[in-house]
Amino acid sequence: MTRPVHRVAPRTDGPIRQDGLRAHNLVLTFRQIAGARDAPISRSELAAATGLTRPTITRIVDELLAAELIVEAGPSRSGGSGRPRVGLSLARSGPAGLGLDIRADVLSACVVDLTGTVRHLEFADRPGAGPEAVLGGLAAMAGRAVTAAAAENLTVVGVTLAVPGPVRDDAVVRLAPALGWRDVNAGAALSGRLGLPVHVGNDARLAALAEWYAAGPELRDFVCVSGEFDIGAGLVLDGAQLDGWAGELGHVMVGSGGPPCVCGATGCLQCYAGLESILAASGDRGAGSPEVARSPAVAIDALVSAGDPRILAALDEAATALGIAIAGLVNLVRVDTVLLGGGYALLASWLIDGIHRELRRRVLRTGWSPVEVRPAPLGPDAAVIGAALSAVDRVRRDPNGWLARLHR
User: Fold this and answer.
1) Are 108 and 121 in contact (CB under 8 A)?
2) Distance between CA 383 and CA 101 in Å, rounded?
3) Looking at the domain assignment, is residue 14 inside a domain?
4) Residue 188 and residue 125 share a domain
5) Per-residue model confidence as pLDDT tens digits over 50-91
6) Segments forming the whole domain that contains residue 390
7) What is each CA distance from 324 to 328, 331, 371, in whole angstroms?
8) How many CB atoms neighbour CB 192 within 10 A?
9) Is the same domain home to 228 and 367?
10) Is residue 297 part of a domain?
11) Any stretches that span the bilayer, and where are they (predicted)?
12) Beta strands, E only, 142-197
């Protein structure tokens, strides 16, 4: 399976031509190639964009070609005469990123190449919630993904695990209430099993990263509310993810006298709009079909299709609670789009009207600057794709580590 995803061009600094700064100019050049969206970029365009001399560009391009990080497009003429234009673009072989994700009922693994194209996507039943079983299942999937990548001339250079909760030091899951995890060093556990560097990140933030890649530069200010497991929110402002953003929207209080939450508080959004809470309000888990049992969102959709009035009422209550929580967020940060991701992408038809209703009531600027609410294109796959993109993005930002690896 392949799915192209893109990203806005990264910002770069100006050129530095001093001895010993070859690595800087290589990064500068490579980022221009990686950020070229409309068409492959030529050597002359690279020289103009970076301010580097043509001989320097030639040397750097030759090095990137030899490392199989970029490829040359076929020559073409921009006009009726002159030398043909040879474009440069990212290669679809070489380094790749591996993403892992923990969902409500399944685990997932994904490999993307330098272009952001999905080259491998796999799912497996989640073996309970305990760290040992879950991390063991993820390690087995990661091993298969690395083998599948190698068969396509790809080398996995790093792994990112998406988890439903806050993370410390890119490795330790501080608290994942939906899993019952506290201070689990998932990064070290997986790195020891795989022999690869493993980073751990919040699933909502990684889902927003994937949606940002998929949408391109026109989507610059948005929040992606992900409801696959716990409820999280990934935020992008002015075309960049916000550093230090926790994103634990599911544990924002929306009802002061509400039910107790697994986090220890009461009245959290998770209690009203979590997928398991919606199913519980309907009194039916939707069992019967393996596909329904695989995902709470699929179970909810099946109940809606059957015309169950209890699930419709539960969805309306969930939409109201989501609207209250999102309105508070939108009053604090200026976004013009709300993406419903994870399981919410499958249920958007039954949630959008209720969310809009609350936004119109509660957001100050909706009278002159309405907020659009729509399903996220990548849906439940966004977190694992974002995790894989995060892993390979380390090479996109600085390919010098890959080059040093080849020269060992």
Assistant:
1) yes
2) 7
3) no
4) yes
5) 999 999 999 999 999 999 999 998 665 455 555 667 899 999
6) 94-207+383-399
7) 6, 11, 14
8) 12
9) yes
10) yes
11) none
12) 154-163, 167-168, 172-176, 181-185
